[in-house]
């Protein structure tokens, strides 16, 4: 009962509190309406700009400050960097540097990516590396320690040859032949890619088995024979599709085919099991002087 009485007393006390009602005879202050139910929102709206002006800006140093007004949108001020260093490191508008491609001189994967970037007209800087030595500048960009690795002008890293080739097609100018892709081109590209992938696998197998690229003991093992069939079968399939290849402007299919043919000739000279059909040799010769394929050709 006491608890009930106390509760009743409290509720009765609240019920008896007088309500604040506007004085109809009072003169309102300029710019304000009487604080009736309809005028409270207006009062708050009028006060909000005052509080906003007086409230100091609160910065934690952890948030992304957004684009710099004096530089490109890619510039970001880090909490640990003095503003003087940031202004020195942010390039001016339109001053983006070239992309950087990490490659070696003989990799067919690197050649495919490099040739596509040249065809796209990319502003490119080349850095030759020996990926087997795991150079720090490559490892810090690509944990897989593989080539090609492409560093874009904004610091983004692209890896794997076909992904870089796709990027080249994307940045090519409007109307470029690199943008005219088709399922048939993808078919040829995939076959050619499988050919030089099998060739590289064979060389790696030789290194594992005998420690030498020239020792052919691995080639006669079951896995070596399987890779050989991948190469000979792929070349035969490419020959059957050779009439779909252009001899005027090299797209991805032509670059992949030339890369496959030239790499087999480089790594398996005089091999009795390897024959390059005339039509594929003709495609290779047609683009021998094309800058994208001449400048990326492996050394003899």
TrEMBL record:
Residues 1-12, 65-74 have a biased composition (Low complexity). Pfam families: GST_N_2. Residues 1-94 are annotated as: Disordered. Residues 97-176 form the GST N-terminal domain. InterPro entries: Glutathione_S-Trfase_N (IPR004045), Thioredoxin-like_sf (IPR036249). Signal peptide: none annotated. This is GST N-terminal domain-containing protein. Residues 81-90 have a biased composition (Polar residues). It comes from Fulvimarina endophytica.
């Amino acid at each position: 009962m006491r608890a009930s009485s106390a509760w009743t007393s409290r509720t009765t006390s609240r019920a008896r509190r007088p309500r604040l009602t506007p004085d109809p005879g009072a003169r309102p202050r300029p710019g304000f309406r009487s604080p009736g139910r309809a005028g409270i929102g207006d009062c708050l709206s009028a006060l909000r700009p005052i509080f906003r002006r007086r409230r100091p800006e609160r910065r934690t140093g952890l948030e992304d400050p957004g684009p710099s007004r004096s530089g490109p949108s890619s510039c970001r001020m880090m909490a640990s960097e003095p503003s003087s260093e940031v202004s020195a490191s942010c390039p001016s508008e339109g001053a983006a540097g070239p992309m950087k491609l990490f490659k070696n001189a003989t990799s067919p994967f690197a050649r495919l990516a490099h040739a596509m970037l040249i065809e796209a007209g990319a502003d490119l800087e080349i850095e030759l590396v020996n990926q087997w030595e795991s150079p720090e500048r490559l490892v810090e960009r690509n944990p897989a320690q593989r080539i090609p690795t492409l560093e874009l002008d904004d610091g983004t890293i692209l890896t794997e040859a076909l992904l870089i080739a796709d990027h080249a097609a994307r940045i090519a100018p409007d109307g470029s032949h690199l943008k005219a892709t088709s399922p048939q081109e993808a078919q040829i590209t995939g076959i050619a890619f499988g050919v030089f992938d099998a060739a590289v696998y064979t060389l790696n197998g030789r290194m594992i088995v005998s420690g030498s690229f020239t020792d052919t003991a691995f080639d006669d093992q079951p896995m070596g024979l399987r890779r050989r069939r991948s190469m000979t079968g792929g070349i035969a399939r490419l020959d059957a599709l050779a009439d779909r290849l252009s001899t005027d402007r090299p797209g991805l299919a032509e670059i992949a085919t030339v890369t496959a043919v030239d790499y087999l000739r480089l790594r398996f000279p005089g091999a009795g099991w390897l024959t390059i059909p005339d039509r594929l040799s003709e495609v290779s010769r047609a683009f021998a002087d094309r800058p994208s394929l001449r400048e990326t050709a492996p050394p003899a």
